[in-house]
């Protein structure tokens, strides 16, 4: 990576404009001559984009802002995108805008802030963004975040066309917020500079109400969101097919080959992976969030692959399949797998409008408890096992969660609206029962130890029941074997 000559101070943008751009301590050039500085100001073509159309979800984001306005009349609402985070020294992590900001605007650039100013009729929205880097003061080529180093930003005029929101220079926002009066709320945890400007104007309790509302607003997906979730799932299906085709190469290397194979599909067809891929072979499948992915891949064992592609608009799939690495389940693996499949079938059947969110969890857990009693691993009756939660030694986790722009979406929602709530058409959730027999679990027969099985699908609640968005991936054990054989040729 080349050296940028200088670095801005992103925490104090106002100072950046007034002070000369600082040279990197160990840069190879001692400075910039007046002649070079003057030369760099001119001779550049006009690159303004004049024929931009609004983004595909512009109408959807406008409707979301209208709902937000109706909920908090007369109050200024501040929703930041967040800032770049340092990975090491002067390199940053890839930026991902806050979900609240992206949900309300469709914009994904760092340092952006949506401000909803109260009016007699509701709110006026303004999108505060960094404008294109300045050519007059040399920022565009001297700053580490200048466009010759990290790429072109949209101009404020272009942003207005894309997002359907008036745009202003974000570097002026902190000062304006310090002087502002009247009630205000901010989504915390994303932009320390904006929060500092509001420190004497907000309370944690009121800000949390804003965050909760925006989390609950995402419980029911609109048509655009459902289409994006299906797109994410479709790419994920192709990613799973990619993995099956290279299992021989994974056996020759490690779980990292599986991780890299799926990541390629995510980056080619989407924005990224939606979360750290779990590529858990053999006994690693009993570790729920195994993301080290550095273990051996051995014929005769199982691979638990839990992975999802994230679309360019941040919607993610979340799918799990447990696959026999050599293409065939042995007798015990099949028995355990089929039990989990039966539990998942019961859970999916319980997903329907008007049902309780907990219903699919309870249905799946009952089947698993019945199997554990039947196999003699826990003493019945089943009602006793469920009442005491004894099955959790081997099932461990809840059977699913809401899905959307976060893999565990709507997490700030009130309990009565989410886990104790009622399912509605447009909600999207996972159904993912599992059984995990730890390698050191002396309460089960030795042959069970080190076997982990999870099957997970993304389920959309519809008007008359549900739709499995990931149904293109086989689930039944015999279908899985046939699918793998076909992909391996």
TrEMBL record:
Key words, A-Z: Aminopeptidase, Hydrolase, Manganese, Metal-binding, Protease
GO cellular component: cytosol
Domain Aminopeptidase P N-terminal: 56-195
UniProt entry tagged with the keyword Protease: yes
Example GO molecular function: manganese ion binding
EC number(s) given by UniProt: 3.4.11.9
UniProt superkingdom: Bacteria
Keyword Hydrolase: yes
Ranges of Low complexity composition bias in the record: 1-10
Cofactor(s) of this protein: Mn(2+)
Annotated region described as Disordered, given as residue ranges: 1-33
Pfam families linked: AMP_N, Peptidase_M24
Enzyme class: hydrolase
Residues annotated as transmembrane: none
UniProt xrefs under InterPro entries: Aminopep_P_N, Creatin/AminoP/Spt16_N, Creatinase/aminopeptidase-like, Pept_M24, Peptidase_M24B_aminopep-P_CS, X-Pro_dipept-like
Coiled-coil intervals, chain numbering: none
Swiss-Prot/TrEMBL catalytic activity: Release of any N-terminal amino acid, including proline, that is linked to proline, even from a dipeptide or tripeptide
PANTHER family: XAA-PRO AMINOPEPTIDASE 3 (PTHR43226:SF4)
Family to which the UniProt record says this protein belongs: Belongs to the peptidase M24B family.
Name of the protein: Xaa-Pro aminopeptidase
Organism: Streptomyces alfalfae
């Amino acid at each position: 990576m080349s050296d940028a000559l200088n670095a801005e101070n992103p925490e104090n943008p106002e100072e950046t404009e007034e002070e000369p751009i600082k040279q990197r301590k160990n840069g190879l050039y001692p400075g910039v001559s007046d002649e070079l500085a003057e030369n760099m100001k001119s001779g550049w073509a006009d690159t303004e984009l004049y024929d931009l159309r609004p983004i595909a979800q512009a109408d959807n984001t406008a409707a979301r802002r209208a709902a937000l306005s109706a909920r908090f009349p007369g109050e200024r609402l501040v929703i930041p995108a967040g800032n770049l985070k340092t990975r090491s020294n002067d390199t940053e992590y890839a930026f991902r805008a806050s979900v609240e900001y992206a949900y309300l605007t469709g914009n994904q650039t760092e340092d952006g802030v949506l401000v909803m100013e109260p009016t007699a009729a509701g709110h006026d929205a303004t999108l505060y963004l960094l404008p294109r880097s300045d050519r007059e003061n040399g920022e565009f080529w001297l700053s580490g975040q200048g466009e010759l180093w990290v790429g072109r930003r949209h101009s404020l005029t272009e942003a207005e066309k894309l997002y359907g929101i008036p745009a202003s220079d974000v570097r002026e926002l902190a000062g304006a917020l310090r002087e502002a009066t009247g009630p205000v709320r901010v989504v915390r945890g994303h932009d320390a500079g904006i929060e500092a400007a509001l420190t004497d104007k907000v309370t944690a309790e009121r800000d949390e109400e804003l965050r909760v509302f925006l989390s609950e607003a995402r419980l029911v997906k609109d048509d655009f969101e459902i289409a994006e979730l299906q797109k994410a799932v479709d790419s994920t299906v192709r990613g799973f097919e990619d993995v099956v085709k290279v299992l021989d190469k994974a056996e020759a290397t490690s779980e990292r080959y599986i991780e890299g194979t799926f990541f390629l599909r995510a980056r080619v067809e989407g924005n990224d992976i939606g979360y750290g891929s779990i590529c858990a072979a053999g006994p690693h499948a009993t570790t729920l969030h195994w993301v080290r992915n550095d273990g051996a891949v051995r014929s005769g064992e199982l691979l638990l692959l839990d992975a999802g592609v994230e679309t360019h608009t941040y919607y993610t799939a979340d799918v799990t399949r447990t696959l026999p690495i050599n293409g065939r389940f042995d007798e015990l693996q099949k028995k355990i797998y089929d039990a989990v499949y039966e539990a998942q079938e019961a859970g999916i059947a319980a997903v329907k409008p008007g049902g309780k969110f907990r219903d699919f969890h309870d249905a799946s857990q009952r089947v698993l408890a019945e199997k554990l009693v039947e196999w003699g691993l826990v003493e019945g009756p089943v009602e006793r096992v469920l009442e005491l939660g004894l099955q959790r030694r081997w099932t461990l986790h809840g059977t699913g969660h809401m899905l959307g722009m976060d893999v565990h979406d709507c997490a700030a929602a009130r309990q009565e609206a989410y886990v104790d709530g009622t399912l509605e058409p447009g909600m999207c959730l996972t159904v993912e029962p599992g059984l995990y027999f730890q390698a050191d679990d002396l309460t089960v027969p030795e042959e069970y130890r080190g076997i982990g099985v999870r099957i997970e699908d993304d389920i959309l609640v519809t008007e008359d029941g549900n739709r499995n968005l990931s149904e293109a991936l086989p689930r039944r054990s015999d279908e899985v074997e046939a699918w793998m054989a076909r992909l391996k040729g």
